[in-house]
Design brief:
Elements lengths: L2 H6 L2 H11 L4 H13 L2 H6 L6 H17 L3 E7 L5 H17 L2 E8 L26 H6 L5 E5 L2 H9 L8 E6 L4 H8 L12 E6 L12 H12 L3 E5 L3 H4 L11 E6 L32
Parallel strand pairs: 1-2, 1-4, 2-3, 4-5
Antiparallel strand pairs: 5-7, 6-7
Helix pairs in contact: 5-6, 9-10
The structure holds S-adenosylmethionine.
S-adenosylmethionine binds next to α6, β2 and α9.
């Protein structure tokens, strides 16, 4: 059976399929059947027909932005790997995205390797998570990783500074999934966006897994970590991805709420006078004025 259908018929996924997918208009679901059978990878991403659309959409979007801004290679990150299903999924999606866009990827997963650390205080949501949750078989996982993927084990505060020294403009950070559950670990992970601007795409799509837990609010959990990041970094801001729901075919998907963008306002591409690009024009068909070139 197609792995996507196998997944959606899993007992734990059925409720989500009912709430998010069966509530879409009938013509969208009928078109989806056709796309699932005959559609291109890009079309499947558009119709949420790739396993973990929350990774497929931002990775494809990052590659498109890379082509627009002249990058050939990107680094993709997953903070919080656990058993590694998400990391392997990123690897599979990245392979497809390379075929479609030509952009190559370095993929890096971060985890303690021993499960969740001790929560620091109430902001880490001890009602939901505890030390030792989400163990990993790191040996088995490493055996199954492709050559362009690394697994970095240890507390993120210790491993991140070493990793950041290996990132450069030849493969800037183009996507990150932050799925470390605690406020304290999310804060440690978001430090990845505080280094020099050439280490990032000017706009980095990120997936924030833990902004939706019901006990999360602006004062605890990942939501607090994001707010503090924005307060502490004048030229870097994390904001929900603009108008994403309006731009999607399937509008009821929950993952849409988890996609944010890290805006690197001090990036050279976002600095006046640093770019050479075609002048933008606007034609006026009412009075027959045309500048003869397409908008940049
Ligand atoms: C929910 S699991 C990740 C699930 C995974 N993203 C997936 O989709 O399969 C959270 C993981 O974050 C890791 N983690 C939490 N805090 C960490 C820290 N400070 N340093 C390193 N890893 C951490 C835990 O070890 C755990 O495996």
């Amino acid at each position: 059976m197609n792995p996507l259908f196998k997944r959606i018929f899993r007992k734990d996924k059925l409720a989500r399929v009912a709430v998010e997918r069966l509530t879409e208009p009938l013509h969208i679901n009928l078109a989806s059947l056709f796309v699932a059978g005959f559609g291109s990878f890009r079309c499947k991403v558009d119709f949420d027909l790739v396993i973990r659309p929350q990774y497929a959409f931002p990775i494809l979007r990052a590659a498109d932005l890379a082509n627009e801004w002249g990058y050939k290679r990107l680094t993709l990150l997953e903070f919080g790997v656990a058993a590694g299903a998400g990391l392997l999924n990123i690897c599979r999606i990245a392979k497809q995205v390379t075929k479609v866009t030509g952009v190559e990827f370095r993929i890096v997963g971060f985890d303690t390797g021993t499960g969740m650390p001790e929560p620091v205080d109430y902001r880490d949501l001890p009602e939901a998570y505890a030390a030792g949750d989400f163990p990993m078989d790191s040996e088995r996982l490493r055996e199954n990783l492709p050559a362009n993927c690394e697994l970095i084990l240890g507390p993120i505060t210790e491993t991140l500074p070493v990793f950041l020294r290996t990132v450069g403009a030849d493969a800037p950070i183009g996507f990150a999934s932050i799925d470390v559950d605690y406020y304290s670990s999310a804060k440690d992970s978001l430090a990845v966006f505080a280094d020099s601007p050439e280490k990032y795409l000017p706009l980095v799509p990120v997936y924030l897994d833990d902004v939706g837990d019901i006990t999360v609010n602006p004062w605890v959990g990942e939501w607090l970590a994001v707010n503090e990041f924005n307060d502490e970094h004048a030229m870097r801001k994390i904001a929900p991805w603009n108008m994403l729901r309006a731009r999607r075919i399937c509008k009821n998907a929950k993952w849409i709420e988890h996609i944010y963008g890290v805006h690197v306002h001090d990036h050279a591409i976002r600095t006046p006078g640093t770019q050479t690009r075609t002048r933008r024009t606007a034609d006026n068909e009412f009075i027959g004025v045309s500048f003869g070139n397409k908008p940049a």
